[in-house]
């Protein structure tokens, strides 16, 4: 007779102990020593956890899902989005040397914080960013982290629509693709173009229920981003060889008050370009044969890919346009580049990157919808197709309205980078690790020192960035 049960050795034991603030569940190792601890403050959340897990089903779930390449594409797609378009402008502020250092350091620190999330999510058996925050910091901090995810992701998606509008319909100082191709008309109206993109292309992709379903589109989006990088680098190289590129600045500019203000807010903008932490757990959950080591490999490959793409884009964009580099470098590509096939390359770059954003959009929307659903309905995805579609439609409507009110991507990135971006990427992961370290997870002295340095740095940059943003707005209004 087949059985799904195995004999429990007499030397093994399971002990449940009541704590003042929750329940402690400890499991012995092979020597009978208690090693792992899970502490839960909210008793209601325990109702969602099964007491007995079917081993065969668990194995089936771990064998399904995406492999390392698919996970890399999904994580890279979460990172390489609108932030890449602001990097040439940050390079203009920082200069080539400091800009390169900042891109590498931000990438390394971001990868470290991703590994922290994976490590402590696995330890606390958390399936989402909010759950790992709750396991370490309590339920109120979970709510705060989920609000940060909503603000950050909604802001990113608003930026995507702003870029699509800038490219296809133009801006006050730049001509859009539709105007160049067909002349001015109703098809060139910015709000109408963005609405058509949302309804015809974004809504069907955002209605998908699993992030693994987006692996193919994520791979296509990364390929389109690489096409943009290769073409812009090739143009910059040709013009550099021909001696038609002005000498770039190596360091930051302290000559004016405006330049100093930009310097204060540029690091949060660059930090925001690496924020993908809200999608780490969903991607890890759907990783085939998942393990912390395998997810760490995904994070390292993704970080290396993103650092190369970001540096190439930032340098080529800055070399091409110099002091005239816009906050959204894509809109610089409406002019003659001074090389053969310039107009064709302009269209390839702009339309290709719009397609990239269309494919990235649903990946970011996935975690936004999941987080809103958890807050509203206490479940990662609303039950019932009508409720799912209603939530998706409502979120897309709010994002569309936001894209019609925010003036440009620099404004959006300045505030989200200094607040929610730094919180999700660095402040919460550091607090999680330091708190769980006190509950028996022994970090090394070097790890603990690095965590305190990262936490202090993130808090200082956040405060300086917010103050710089507010002062900049006051100066603009004056």
Automatic annotation (TrEMBL):
Cellular component per GO, a single term: organelle membrane
Transmembrane segments: 67-87, 93-118, 147-169, 189-208, 220-238, 258-280, 301-321, 347-368, 389-411, 417-437, 449-471
Origin species: Dendrobium nobile
Domain Amino acid transporter transmembrane intervals: 67-466
Taxonomy, superkingdom: Eukaryota
UniProt membrane topology term: Multi-pass membrane protein
Name the UniProt record assigns to this protein: Amino acid transporter transmembrane domain-containing protein
Keyword Transmembrane helix: yes
This protein's record includes keyword Phosphoprotein: no
Subcellular location: Membrane
InterPro entries: AA_transpt_TM (IPR013057)
Main subcellular location of this protein, as a coarse class: membrane
PANTHER family in the cross-refs: AMINO ACID TRANSPORTER, AMINO ACID TRANSPORTER AVT6E
Keywords, comma-separated and alphabetical: Amino-acid transport, Membrane, Transmembrane, Transmembrane helix, Transport
Example GO molecular function: L-amino acid transmembrane transporter activity
């Amino acid at each position: 007779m087949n059985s799904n049960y195995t004999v429990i050795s007499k030397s093994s034991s399971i002990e449940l102990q009541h704590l003042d603030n929750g329940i402690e569940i400890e499991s012995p190792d092979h020597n009978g020593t208690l090693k792992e601890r899970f502490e839960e403050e909210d008793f209601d959340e325990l109702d969602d956890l099964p007491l007995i897990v079917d081993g065969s089903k668990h194995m089936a779930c771990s064998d399904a899902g995406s492999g390392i390449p698919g996970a890399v594409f999904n994580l890279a797609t979460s990172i390489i989005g609108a932030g890449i378009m602001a990097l040439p402008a940050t390079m203009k502020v920082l200069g080539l040397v400091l800009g390169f250092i900042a891109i590498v350091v931000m990438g390394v620190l971001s990868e470290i914080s991703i590994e922290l999330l994976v490590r402590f999510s696995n330890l606390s058996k958390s399936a989402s960013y909010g759950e790992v925050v709750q396991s370490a910091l309590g339920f109120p901090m979970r709510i705060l982290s989920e609000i940060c995810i909503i603000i950050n992701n909604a802001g990113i998606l608003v930026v995507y629509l702003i870029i699509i509008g800038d490219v296809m319909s133009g801006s006050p100082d730049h001509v859009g693709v539709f105007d160049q191709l067909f002349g001015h008309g109703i098809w060139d109206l910015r709000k109408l173009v963005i609405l058509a993109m949302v309804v015809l292309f974004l809504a069907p992709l955002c209605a998908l229920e699993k992030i693994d379903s987006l692996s193919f589109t994520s791979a296509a989006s990364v390929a389109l981003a690489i096409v943009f990088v290769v073409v812009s680098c090739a143009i910059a190289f040709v013009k550099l060889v021909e001696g038609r590129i002005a000498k770039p600045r190596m360091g930051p500019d302290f000559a004016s008050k405006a330049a100093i203000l930009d310097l204060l807010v540029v690091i949060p903008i660059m930090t925001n370009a690496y924020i993908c932490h809200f999608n780490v757990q969903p991607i890890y959950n759907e990783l085939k044969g998942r393990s912390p080591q395998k997810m760490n490999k995904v994070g390292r490959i993704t970080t290396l890919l993103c650092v190369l793409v970001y540096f190439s884009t930032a340098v080529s964009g800055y070399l091409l346009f110099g002091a005239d580099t816009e906050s959204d470098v894509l809109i610089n590509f409406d002019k003659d580049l001074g090389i053969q096939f310039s107009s064709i390359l302009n269209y390839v770059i702009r339309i290709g990157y719009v397609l990239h954003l269309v494919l990235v959009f649903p990946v970011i929307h996935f975690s936004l919808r999941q987080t809103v659903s958890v807050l509203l309905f206490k479940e990662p995805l609303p039950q019932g197709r009508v409720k799912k579609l209603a939530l998706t439609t409502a979120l897309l409507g709010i994002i569309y309205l936001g894209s019609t009110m925010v003036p440009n991507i620099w404004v959006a990135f300045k505030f989200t980078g200094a607040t929610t971006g730094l919180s999700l990427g660095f402040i919460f992961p550091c607090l999680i690790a330091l708190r769980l370290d006190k509950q028996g997870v022994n970090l090394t002295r070097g790890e603990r020192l690095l965590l305190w340095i990262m936490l202090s740095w993130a808090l200082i940059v956040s405060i300086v960035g917010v103050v710089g943003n507010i002062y900049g707005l006051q100066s603009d209004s004056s």
